[in-house]
Every structure is written in structure tokens, then in C-alpha cells.
Amino acid sequence: MNVEDSWRVIASERRSLADMLEQLTGAQWEAPSLCAAWRVRDVAAHIAMVPNAPGMLAMARGAVRARGNFNRLNQDLAMRHARRPVADIVAELRIDADSRRLPSVTSVTNLGFDILVHGQDIAVPLGVTRPMPTDAAAAGAERVWTMGWPFWARRRLRGYRLVATDANWSAGGGAEVQGPIDALLLLLTGRPAGLTGLTGDGAAALRERTAVTRG
Question: Which whole-number Å values give the CA distances from 65 to 39, 46, 76, in the listed order?
């Protein structure tokens, strides 16, 4: 996908996410997401704040408070932003849907898969079906596979060949694991929920290994 296509997907995802969030009950906003220790409202706030993310100085101060832990920094920022009313979070997503402002620590390529995955972080535990645009998900899978930190997908999934059944994407070598590209993208980004949609000779072994690791 080129840059223009990526931005169009991001804008569309922000709008459709706002539509979905607007239908949630108060209890659903407070429900756990797929991200450990993050509620639905925290993930939604994290997505909404992207176009107006803190500058480098504020990020540096936050990093000090988080003792250099990037995940803790991300969580602190999201939870702080999540204190605002949920209607404001929804409004932010709509108002800034077409914004092309980027936090200093990311790129449009990373933002493309980020919003796809975080949409599932919200939808999956709530039992809401949220289809991913196939081309964007395939581009996201390729980016995650090649990027290393923070997902280390090639290292984690060494010994498996991943094959999308609904997109022209595959990676790795070994026992084959097949499935829709949205499930593979969740797997690549460390979401065990993606395993439920996978089949193939390597799928059972991968599920067993993931269960042992989590246990």
C-alpha cells in the first residue's frame, strides 16, 4: 500500500471505530480489552489521542516517570487521556479522522496496522465483529514481520510458515499455519486471540506452545 492508501484506511478506521464505540454501554467501555490491564476506554483513548500526541519533551518526561519502560509510558498516556468523557473520545475520533499528524515516535506505516489491531483489541472481547480491510491487513502483517521490536514476530514464530487464506501474504518456514489475514495479524502482534482462527499442521502446536508460555 502507498502512503495515500494508508491514510485513507486510517481515516476510515477512525470513523468506523467512532460509530462502533458510540453504540457501547457504560459497562462495555469499562470492560477488559485484549491488551493486558487496558480497558476498552483506554484503548479507545490511545487511538483518539494519536493526532494530538504529546511532543518530544512531554514524552521524555513521561519516559522518566515510566522508568524507561515504553509499554508503561504508553499505558500511562492512554489512561490519562481515558479520564475524559467517552463522548469526547468518540468526538475526537471523528473530528481528527482525516488528520495526518503523527507522533514523533511512529510512522504512517506503523499507524496503519496499529489502528487495525487496536480495533480488534476492543471488538474481540466484546463479541463484536469488526472486519479488517484485507490489503491493509496484509501490508500490516508484512511490516510487523520485518520490523523486529516490539513484537519480534520472526523470532517468536520461528519454525512456522504463515499463510493467509484470503490475501496474497505468507512468511516464515516450517509447519504451516493458515488463516485469514486478520487472525494472522493478531498473532504477529502477540494477541493469542488470533490463534482461534488458524488451521494447518502447525496450528495445534502453536496453540499449545502459546498456552504453555502464558501459563
Answer: 21, 18, 9
The two counts, helices (H) then strands (E), for the chain are 11, 3
Backbone angles phi, psi at 163, to 5 degrees: -135, 120
Q: Which residues contact 26 (CB under 8 A, 6 or more apart)?
A: 86
pTM: 0.90
For residues 7 and 87, state if they share a domain: yes
Q: Say yes or no: 122 and 86 in one domain.
A: yes
Range of the domain at 120: 3-126
Q: Tell me the three state secondary structure of residue 178.
A: strand
* Per-residue pLDDT tens digits for 146-199: 999 999 999 999 999 999 999 999 999 999 999 999 999 999 999 999 999 899
Cα radius of gyration (the chain): 17
Largest CA-CA distance found in the chain, in angstroms, rounded: 49
pLDDT in tens, 112-127: 999 999 999 999 999 9
**Cβ–Cβ contacts within 10 Å for residue 58, how many?**
11
Tell me, yes or no, whether 111 and 177 share the same domain. no
**Tens digit of pLDDT for each residue in 58-96?**
555 555 465 555 567 778 888 998 999 999 999 999 999
